[in-house]
Amino acid sequence: MFNIIKKIIENLFKTHQWCILIKKSNESVWVRLKQPKDVSRADPFIVYKDGKYYIFFEEFDIKKRHGYLCVGEYCQNCNEIKNIRVILNEKYHLSFPNVFLYKNEYYMIPESSENKTIDLYKFINFPYNLVKIKTLINDISAADNVLLFKDQKVFLFTSLYTHSRCLHSENLSIYQSNDLLNDDFIEIHNNPVLTDKEFVRNGGQFIESGSSLFRVSQDCKKRYGYKINFMKVNKITDTEYEEEVSKMIYPPKGYIAFHTYNIANDMEIADGKIVVKNLFVLINNFIDLLKLIFKRLG
């Protein structure tokens, strides 16, 4: 009985914390970047500009249970992100800050599924100031949105939550537009194009290598972020999409999940999930337990 109570108390302290990992492309060992104990950092995107690496990421306040978007400069000598600033903070949860270059300007499409929108932001003063310029799609719960510019068209890859039986990790859908800034996005035929939980959900930006194109996806079949997949794109048209598995990478030793991967210049960046003990988690779990008790009593 004592051991059971002890285990319950220990589990009340435990939470999962996401951390940002980085390495050079010619290296095999991932390095964890320093971060405070009271936050999780995930969904990293990396941009190389003017001799500097800028890392965009979701920061999740464990105490407040709120996610917002940040950016900072990667310090290679100290293995941490310097000059961090919050660049987007709303009442709803934000994640997956997809930053990309379009017609020599930097833009961002964050995940705002809680707000049921896919929004487009433009950097006015890169990388710290941005402004919302357009809602690409309204009334949609879409996760991990990624763009592909191909054949004079813009393809938006996303995973939708349509009802309790169709979760974000269970489908890949594609929308297309003739112009990112001046045209609407419409669904391609045969959506969703994929429904296998092992491969559907995006895990980063598209990667071009020679004449080949790869979609980064995360494996959510066994558990959320079980591994990263590199899917070779064989065909994409207004009506068809075909891909095949090219490569898989698993979380480094000591991590239980691995669900975002991006690359810039000679640096690769990812996120890893670890199990930690945190006082804020104990307090939050205790409050949740009390709410549940009062709800059942009432």
TrEMBL record:
SUPFAM superfamilies reported for this sequence: Arabinanase/levansucrase/invertase
InterPro entries listed in its UniProt record: Exostosin, GINT1_N, Glyco_hydro_beta-prop_sf
GO molecular function: glycosyltransferase activity
Pfam family, one: GINT1_N
Glucosamine inositolphosphorylceramide transferase 1 N-terminal domain boundaries: 42-246
Record PANTHER family: ACETYLGLUCOSAMINYLTRANSFERASE (PTHR48261)
Name of the protein in its database record: Glucosamine inositolphosphorylceramide transferase 1 N-terminal domain-containing protein
Species of provenance: Campylobacter concisus UNSW3
